[in-house]
Automatic annotation (TrEMBL), chains A, B:
Cofactor (UniProt): pyridoxal 5'-phosphate
Protein name, per record: Branched-chain-amino-acid aminotransferase
Pathway given in the UniProt record: Amino-acid biosynthesis; L-valine biosynthesis; L-valine from pyruvate: step 4/4; Amino-acid biosynthesis; L-isoleucine biosynthesis; L-isoleucine from 2-oxobutanoate: step 4/4; Amino-acid biosynthesis; L-leucine biosynthesis; L-leucine from 3-methyl-2-oxobutanoate: step 4/4
Pfam families listed in its UniProt record: Aminotran_4
Reaction(s) catalysed by this chain's protein: L-isoleucine + 2-oxoglutarate = (S)-3-methyl-2-oxopentanoate + L-glutamate; L-valine + 2-oxoglutarate = 3-methyl-2-oxobutanoate + L-glutamate; L-leucine + 2-oxoglutarate = 4-methyl-2-oxopentanoate + L-glutamate
Gene Ontology process terms (BP): isoleucine biosynthetic process; L-leucine biosynthetic process; L-valine biosynthetic process
Positions carrying N6-(pyridoxal phosphate)lysine: K197
Length: 357, 357
């Protein structure tokens, strides 16, 4: 029992842990999970850690029909000194509550959520891999569980945290990815749910991703849904460009996710004195910069891949090769610094990491 | 066993059926459900009817995270002659496959789905209520069940059908509803998922509906996400207006659902020789018609409510009272005819109903 009365039931049958060399992304889960219920009138109750196990839900549960759900994604790392670090977890729980607002899901106590996560990680401490590039991926999520087929907010929810030891998200690792600009499909539009981390945004993205995959692109770059001109973000990453010495990224506009890696990158660049700005960026502007030889680097930012260099950007039947298809200098420095801070190898001036004790 | 080898396991413990007077919408479910699995490589397999029971799913199942899901809604009626009728079920399964396309879910055999539904209804025949306005609401749905946290189409799915005896969807019954035009939130945009029946569209709609509910409106009228000028549809209904003798409804544009009731209404109106057209309709045009005294009727169309008269439309701080807040003549005739055909009281010239034998 902890301050928040988190009940802990340990498993009787521990699973075998995967070899570091066999780690994939998000396919293997640890021995335990955290779960907490919400019931209207009673609020959030019964926080508990239990053996990792299936959920048992009425087939009429709203999550199966009306998609009322939110989630988060963050990582824990174990350092050379055997410390366990979480990267800015308070930001994730803050964003989870923002997503809750948009999806009409009751707020969580962010402190309790963090405490729950820490307790769970302590219980499954042995599962955190320590080879380079590996980490423990953390997936907090909330689902609506009222068995009711009317379209209205659920009166019951479950908040769950599961953990998965992972290698890099992209098979390519830090190797540059090829990304295609999406012209037909739209991920989100202002007034929609794009700035929330909710399932429907990802379901909406599958088709475009599948089509671009058949053409050899690993992700799509979304344009805005209104004018189909302005750059939004990539599948599960925000996007940055370095143009003529300045790093630019689309501003927060209501339809893109406010990435925590994005925020950290902006703070790092400012700290380093590298010009950085958030503004509307049209795809035409990027093409012009490319034609003028001024498109120096491009990279995506997100928890899963941390920093993902873009080696080629495809638009209007033409591939723009960026930095000769190689990882740019600023991109590399950001990757090294961020993963360094996250894994305790680089000093954490910003106090971004929280130790799990 | 049937032609499609649908295995049937009957329940040992039948539930008590609700009184006709106590029926709500979508809260009570019958004794059995249909379920069928999809596994990559193997296709859809093991169609079976089993006692209504909870689903047991890994917490990493994609449905809980990325919202890859589709659903349908239709109704069965029992006639005075004890026939059981389904209203245009082939259209629902056709639309389910269209939704599947958009959501990257493998197609279903529509004939098998219909056979499954008929078999299930036969098994739970006793559950179809027969009081006026009541019916058996049918909810076919598909969920993605692969336990994997990567954003990509699932390699496993379940197709499920559950049944719920229902009264009218709206507490008001055929009484006119008050609807507010939504100016801030957007349901969908061309290139998005609006024309598919997938959970995310409904999750996205909750916030606007909740806010309008606090102001006394039961539903919102969505405008297009690009110009915020053109009328789209209501929460779970398409919308029609009668202006100066002509019935008009927004055309299918990629962001609204192609309703089966909508289609039937258009066919009925044509049959009756009442002018009807599908076209872009701006909210300003409706307001002008109202000001000129030409906005004669308005109604929503959808399986749940069938025909729902709109008594008041609220836009820009002003309520437009339609037909003095009473059900219009064409609206009433459509309601009577459609519910009449569905329940076997009015002759089915169009062969819309299929009997379950
Ligand atoms: C749509 C989308 N954009 C951007 C990001 C990046 O956000 P973060 O840096 O917080 O992981 C994510 C999440 O990982 C995402 O799902
Ligand atoms: C968004 C939406 N629009 C319209 C409709 C009406 O479609 P149908 O007449 O096929 O029930 C529905 C479904 O019921 C819906 O969910």
């Amino acid at each position: 029992m902890t301050k928040y009365n988190i009940d802990v039931t340990l498993t009787q049958t521990k699973k075998e842990k995967p070899n570091a060399s066999e780690l994939a992304f998000g396919k293997v889960f640890t021995d335990h999970m955290f779960i907490m219920d919400y019931t209207e009138g009673q609020g959030w109750h019964d926080p508990r850690i239990i053996p990792y196990q299936p959920l048992t839900l009425d087939p009429a549960s709203m999550i199966f029909h009306y998609g009322q759900s939110v989630f988060e994604g963050l990582k824990a790392y174990v350092t050379k000194k055997e410390q366990v670090l979480l990267f800015r977890p308070d930001e994730n729980f803050k964003r989870l509550n923002k997503s809750n607002d948009r999806l009409c899901i009751p707020h969580l106590d962010e402190e309790l959520a963090l405490e729950a996560l820490k307790t769970l990680i302590q219980v499954d401490r042995d599962w955190i891999p320590n080879a380079e590039g590996t980490s423990l991926y953390i997936r907090p999520f909330i689902i609506s569980t009222e068995p009711y087929l009317g379209v209205s907010p659920s009166d019951r929810y479950q908040f769950i945290i599961i953990l998965s030891p992972v290698a890099s998200y992209y098979k390519e690792g830090i190797a540059p990815v090829r990304i295609a600009v999406e012209n037909e499909f739209v991920r989100s539009v202002a007034g929609g749910t794009g700035s929330a981390k909710t399932g429907g945004n990802y379901a909406a993205s599958l088709k475009a991703q599948q089509l671009s995959g058949t053409k050899g692109y690993s992700q799509v770059l979304w344009l805005d849904g209104v004018e189909r001109k302005y750059i939004e973000e990539v599948g599960s990453m925000n996007i940055f460009f370095k143009v003529d010495g300045e790093v630019i990224t689309p501003s927060i506009n209501g339809s893109i996710l406010e990435g925590i890696t994005r925020k950290s990158v902006i703070e790092l660049l400012k700290h380093w004195g590298i010009p950085v700005s958030e503004r509307k960026i049209s795809i035409a502007e990027i093409k012009e910069a490319y034609a003028a030889g001024k498109l120096e680097e491009a990279f995506g930012t997100g928890t899963a891949a941390v920093i993902s260099p873009v080696g080629e950007l495809f638009w209007q039947n033409e591939g723009m090769s960026i930095n000769g298809g190689k990882t740019g200098e600023v991109t590399k420095k950001l990757y090294d610094t961020l993963t360094g801070i996250q894994s305790g190898m680089v000093e954490d001036h910003f106090n971004w990491c929280i130790e799990v004790k």
